[in-house]
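User: Here's a structure from my thesis project, written as structure tokens. My advisor, Dr. K., wants to see whether a designed sequence matches the one we expressed. Can you design one independently, without my sequence as a hint?
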């Protein structure tokens, strides 16, 4: 099974077809509206705008597991992202990324180790998983910002 086979819904509740990202690059990020890292939405939107035509999709995955920092309803999350950050990239339904209720997408993603070789649970909001055109995954921890050379370089390699 790959991420392209996983069933997940959009923020609006429709089925999201992850198979549409096969052969493209997708940056999957667990997001939250009330986190100290929430300003990363600005950089994520910029990545989507800068690299979108080259085949990158940023996919925001709301999660309320870290300090209750994404308590809103789907409508509240959508409005927050639009009004405060002008987010145009797709958002999924709110899910759990750790624990017994972990969504199958994150069952797959969390098997990928980070640069230090550590796999397993997501550490905090805004952890990033970059899936390249071939389906290989690179994991970047929350402190790696969208503007960083580490992430932009990984995106450029994923699109090559």
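Assistant: Designed independently from the structure alone:
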């Amino acid at each position: 099974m790959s991420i392209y086979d996983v069933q997940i819904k959009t923020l609006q509740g429709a089925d999201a077809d992850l198979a549409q990202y096969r052969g493209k690059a997708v940056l999957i990020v667990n997001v939250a509206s009330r986190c100290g890292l929430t300003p990363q939405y600005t950089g994520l939107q910029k990545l989507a705008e800068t690299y979108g035509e080259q085949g990158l999709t940023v996919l925001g995955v709301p999660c309320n597991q870290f300090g209750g920092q994404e308590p809103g309803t789907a409508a509240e999350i959508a409005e927050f992202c639009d009004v405060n950050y002008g987010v145009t990239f797709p958002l999924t339904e709110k899910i759990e990324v750790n624990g017994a209720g972990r969504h199958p997408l994150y069952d797959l993603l969390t098997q990928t180790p980070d640069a230090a070789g550590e796999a397993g649970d997501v550490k905090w909001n805004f952890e990033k998983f970059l899936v390249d055109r071939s389906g290989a995954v690179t994991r970047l921890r929350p402190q790696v910002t969208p503007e960083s050379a580490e992430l932009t370089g990984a995106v450029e390699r994923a699109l090559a």
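When you compare it with your expressed construct, this may help: The domain at 3-159 is CATH 3.40.30.10 (Glutaredoxin).
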